[in-house]
C-alpha cells in the first residue's frame, strides 16, 4: 500500500470508470453471453508474477464487459433499480480507502456514531415515530440487504417469544405474510428454523391491488390460536417486488398489537419515496410496527449495499445476536456506554457504510432527493399512459410509485396463449440489447415489469423502450 | 451520475485517500475520543440543499478522523489485520463504479463466472482437494465474513440431517467445537436454532497449545450417541483467534467421517499462510472436511469484505438456501445451466467482490503474496525473540504464524495481580496512541496479542512497539 502508487493507479481507475459511464449506452443492457463464456478466456491458475494494470484493464474491457448486465444503464428497467451515484461512489471509495472494520464502537467510534446519526437523519426525513430514533431504546442500523434485515428481526422476535414460552415451543411458532411478500422472508424462516407448515402465506388478488386483507390475517391468527399455536410475526409490505402493493399497516398493526406479534415493515423499494410528503401516507400506521426497512441502495442514490433497518426495541436484537468473547472485550462496551453494531447483525465485521449515505445526503440534499424520486414517478406515469393508449396492451394493477406492470392483452380469452406471448415479448425485448425488463406473475398472468429508477434514465429512454416493446409486440401479434 | 463530475470528484477523492496514507503514522492508532463525541459535531438533521465536496472532506478530516481507529496503520497489531492494498482498493472502486448486482448468473454473468474461476485459482494455490473445485459438485463462493460462512454451512448440514431424520428432531442435533472456537460459531448456532445445551464446547489447554484433542471429541460424540442425540457438526480451527491454535484435522476428520458429521474448517486468518508450501501442513487432513473458509480480507491484501468459502457438496447449500420466486426466474437458471450464488448465501443481492481478489492475484502474483506472508511471519519471530529475551515477560503458547501471545510474568505466583498488571499494560500501551494491541485469556491468564499483518508494518514498527511496551511495563513494575 504505497500512497504514490495508490494515487497513480487510482487516477487511472477513476478515468476508466468515468469513460465507462460515457459509453454505457453502447452496451447491450442485458448481457448476451452464453453460460461458461469466461472459462476459456482466463488462465487455469493465478499468475506467479505481477501483471500490469493496463493488462488487467484491457481484460476488464474485452472479457468482463461482455458479461455485464448494465444495472446503471439508463435503459435498465428490470427488478428494482440499484442506484449508483457520484456521492455514493465517493463514499464507497473513502470507505475502501480508510479500510477500517467497525464491529465494536472502539474499533472506530466514528463509524458507529456516524451510522447512528445518519440513520436518525433519515428517520426524520421519513417522519418515523420517535421510538425508532437512537436516543431511546430504538435506533437504526445498516444491514447488507433486506434479506438480512428481515432475518435479524425474525430471530429477535423468535427469541423474545421463546424466552417467555420456553424454547421447546419453537415448533408452535407461526409467521404470517401475504403471497406477495419477497422470497427473502421465506428464506429467513428457513434459516431461523420456523417450520414450513407454520408459515401462513395469505392470498391476495386484484380486488385489493394485491394488498393483504386485515380480515384474512385476523382469521388466520384466530385459527392458529384455537389450534394452540403461537402467532408471533407478520412481515408486511410497502411496495411489493411484483407490483408495489401496499399492505394497510394501520389495520394490520391493530391485529399484531392485540396479539403481541412483531410487525416488520418491508419497504425495501418504496421506502425512498416516503421522504416526499405526498407519498408518506403509504407508511401511515408504521407507529405500530416493531421494525421498518428500506434499501438506500435501491432508489436513493446510495451504492449497494446499504439496507436501512430501524427497530423500536434494540434490546430484543442484541439479546438474540450478542456474543461477548474475551478477545473483543473493552472498557466502553463493558461499561455499556456505547452501541456495538456487531450485536445488531449476522456478521461480526462491517464496512464503514454510513459514509456513502452521509455523502449522498450532504452532496445532494433532501430537496434534490425528493425531486429525484418525483421525476422517476413522473416518467413511470408517462409510461403507464403510453401503455394505456395502445389497445394491444393493458396495465395490470394501478401504478403507485415508479413501477408499471403491463402485458399484451389476451386474444380469444386464451390466458395460456397470452402468457406465452408475453414471455416471448420479454425474450424479444431483452435480447434486442436495447433495454432490460423483468417479469412477474399476478393472479396467474405473466406480466412485464417496467421499473423506472436508474439514475441516468430520462424521458427519451422511456419512450425508446416503449417503441422497442411496440415493435416486438407488433411482430409477435401479426406473425 | 454525470461522468465528468465523477471524473473530477473521483480524482479529488483519490488524492484525499493517498494523502491519508502519507500521513497515517501521525494519528493515534486507537481512537482516543469519548463515547458520543460526534453527536455535537454534526447537525440534527440532513441538509435540504447540496453542500460542497470541500465542506464534506473538511468534515471527514476534522470530525471523522479523530474517531477512527487506524486499521491500516503500520502500528496496528490488534485482533487480526484487515488488509487494504492498492489492488484491493482498485477492485473495490471498479466494483462500486460498475454498480452491478450479481445475485443470479443472468444479472451479470461475469460476476458469477469470475468468482468461480478466482476461487478455483485460490483453491489450487492452497492445494485444496479437487472436490472443492467448481467443475464437480463443489465450488467456492465469496461470503461477507467468516460468520456468514459458518452460518450457511451449519444451515446446510442441519437441513441435510433433518431431511433424513425428520425435522422434529432439531432438538436432538448436537454440534462440537473447542473452547477456542470463534464466537461466530456460537452465534451461528443461536441463529440456526441449535439448542444451547446441545453445543459441546470441548476444553483445551496448554498441553496441546490449545488445539482440540481428538479423544475428547470421540468421547463426547459417543456419549451423545448413547443418549440418543444426533452429532452432526464439528467446527474445527486452523489458527484460532486467541492464539492461532491448529486443531489436528486428520484425526478429527476420521471421527466426523465415521459418524457422518459435517466437518467445517475455520482458517479465517491462517488460511492465507497455507499458500506457502512450508505452511501447507497446517491444513493437512482438509481432505476429510466438507467446507473450508479463509478470509482474503484479513491477511491476503484484499479489502474487506471478502471471505472465501469452499464446499464439496454445493447441493446441500442450495437445498437449504434456495428460493425461486417468479420474478427471478430466467431461462439459464431454469435450465440448470448456471450457478446462482444467491442460493449459496443469506442475502439476495451481492456486490462484484471477485474483482478485487482477481486484481490482487494479478497485480501482485502468487510469489509476491507468499513473500508477503513470510515477511510478516519473520517479523513475528523477531518480536517473539525480543519478548523471550526480557525476563519481565513471557511468551504464552508457541508462535506458529504471525501472532505472538505474551504477558508480563507474575510475581509471587499471584495470577490475579498479574492479570491486572497486564490489563494495565494494555491500557497504557493503547492510550499512548503509538500502537494498538488487543488481548485474550488463555487458561485464565490475561495475555497481550501482537498480531502482525498490516500491509505497511516494517521491522522498525515492531521494534518501536516493543520499546513502548517495555517502557510502560517498566513503569508498572517499578511504581
Name the chain pair whose interface involves the most residues. Answer: A-B, 149 and 150 residues
CATH class of the largest domain in chain A: Alpha Beta
CATH architecture of the largest domain in chain A: 3-Layer(aba) Sandwich
Low-pLDDT runs of 5+ residues of chain A are none
Number of domains of chain A: 3
Query: H/E element string of chain A?
Result: HHHHEHEHEHEHEEHEHHHEEHEEH
Give the N-to-C terminal Cα separation of chain A.
Answer: 61 Å
CATH topology of the largest domain in chain A, anyone?
Answer: Aspartate Aminotransferase, domain 2
Rounded Rg of chain A = 24 Å
SS-based class of chain A: alpha/beta
Number of helices of chain A: 14
In what range is the share of β-strand residues of chain A? 5-15%
CATH superfamily of the largest domain in chain A: Type I PLP-dependent aspartate aminotransferase-like (Major domain)
Structure description:
Two copies of one chain form a homodimer. By secondary structure, chain A is an alpha/beta fold. The first copy, chain A, folds into three domains: 3-72, dopa decarboxylase, N-terminal domain, CATH 1.20.1340.10; 100-351, Type I PLP-dependent aspartate aminotransferase-like (Major domain) (Aspartate Aminotransferase, domain 2, 3-Layer(aba) Sandwich); 373-478, Aspartate Aminotransferase, domain 1 (Alpha-Beta Complex). Chain A has 14 helices and eleven strands. In chain A, the strands form two sheets. Chain A has a seven-stranded mixed sheet, sandwiched between helices. In chain A, strands 8-9-11-10 form a four-stranded antiparallel sheet. In chain A, a hairpin with a 7-residue loop joins β8 (393-395) and β9. The relative contact order of chain A is 0.14. At the A-B interface, α1, α2, α3, α4 and α5 of A face α1, α2, α3, α4 and α5 of B.
Amino acid at each position: 500500500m504505497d500512497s504514490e502508487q495508490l494515487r497513480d493507479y487510482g487516477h487511472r481507475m477513476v478515468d476508466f470508470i468515468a469513460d465507462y459511464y460515457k459509453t454505457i449506452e453502447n452496451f447491450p443492457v442485458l448481457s448476451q453471453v452464453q453460460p461458461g463464456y469466461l472459462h476459456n478466456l482466463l488462465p487455469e491458475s493465478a499468475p506467479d508474477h505481477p501483471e500490469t494494470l493496463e493488462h488487467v484493464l484491457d481484460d476488464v474491457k474485452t472479457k468482463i464487459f461482455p458479461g455485464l448486465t448494465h444495472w446503471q444503464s439508463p435503459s435498465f428497467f428490470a427488478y428494482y433499480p440499484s442506484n449508483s451515484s457520484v456521492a455514493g461512489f465517493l463514499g464507497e471509495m473513502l470507505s475502501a480507502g480508510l479500510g477500517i472494520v467497525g464491529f465494536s464502537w472502539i474499533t472506530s467510534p466514528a463509524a458507529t456514531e456516524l451510522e447512528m446519526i445518519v440513520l436518525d437523519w433519515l428517520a426524520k426525513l421519513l417522519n418515523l415515530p420517535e421510538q425508532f430514533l437512537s436516543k431511546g431504546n430504538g435506533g437504526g442500523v445498516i444491514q447488507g440487504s433486506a434479506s438480512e434485515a428481515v432475518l435479524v428481526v425474525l430471530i429477535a422476535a423468535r427469541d423474545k417469544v421463546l424466552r417467555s414460552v420456553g424454547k421447546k415451543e419453537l415448533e408452535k411458532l407461526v409467521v404470517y405474510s401475504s403471497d406477495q411478500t419477497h422470497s427473502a422472508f421465506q428464506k429467513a424462516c428457513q434459516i431461523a428454523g420456523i417450520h414450513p407448515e407454520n408459515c401462513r402465506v395469505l392470498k391476495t388478488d386484484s380486488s385489493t391491488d394485491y394488498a393483504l386483507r386485515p380480515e384474512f390475517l385476523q382469521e388466520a391468527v384466530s385459527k392458529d390460536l384455537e389450534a394452540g399455536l403461537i402467532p408471533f410475526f407478520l412481515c408486511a409490505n410497502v411496495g411489493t417486488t411484483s407490483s408495489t402493493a401496499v399492505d394497510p399497516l394501520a389495520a394490520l398493526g391493530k391485529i399484531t398489537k392485540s396479539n403481541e406479534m412483531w410487525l416488520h415493515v418491508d419497504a425495501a423499494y418504496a421506502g425512498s419515496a416516503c421522504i416526499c410528503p405526498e407519498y408518506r401516507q403509504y407508511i401511515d400506521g408504521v407507529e405500530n410496527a416493531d421494525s421498518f426497512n428500506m434499501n438506500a441502495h435501491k432508489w436513493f442514490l446510495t451504492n449497494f449495499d446499504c439496507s436501512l433497518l430501524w427497530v423500536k426495541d434494540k434490546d430484543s436484537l442484541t439479546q438474540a445476536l450478542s456474543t461477548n468473547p474475551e478477545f473483543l472485550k473493552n472498557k466502553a462496551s463493558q461499561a455499556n456506554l456505547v452501541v456495538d453494531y456487531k450485536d445488531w447483525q449476522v456478521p461480526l465485521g462491517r464496512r464503514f457504510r454510513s459514509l456513502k449515505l452521509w455523502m449522498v445526503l450532504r452532496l445532494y440534499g433532501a430537496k434534490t432527493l425528493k425531486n429525484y424520486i418525483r421525476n422517476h414517478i413522473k416518467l413511470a406515469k408517462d409510461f403507464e399512459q403510453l401503455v394505456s393508449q395502445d389497445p394491444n396492451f393493458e396495465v395490470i394493477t394501478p401504478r403507485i410509485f415508479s413501477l408499471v406492470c403491463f402485458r399484451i392483452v389476451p386474444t380469444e380469452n386464451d390466458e395460456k396463449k397470452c402468457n406465452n406471448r408475453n414471455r416471448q415479448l420479454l425474450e424479444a425485448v431483452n435480447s434486442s440489447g436495447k433495454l432490460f425488463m423483468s417479469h412477474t406473475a399476478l393472479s396467474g398472468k405473466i406480466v412485464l415489469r417496467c421499473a423506472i429508477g436508474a439514475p441516468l434514465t430520462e424521458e427519451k429512454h422511456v419512450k425508446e423502450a416503449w417503441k422497442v416493446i411496440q415493435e416486438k409486440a407488433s411482430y409477435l401479434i401479426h406473425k
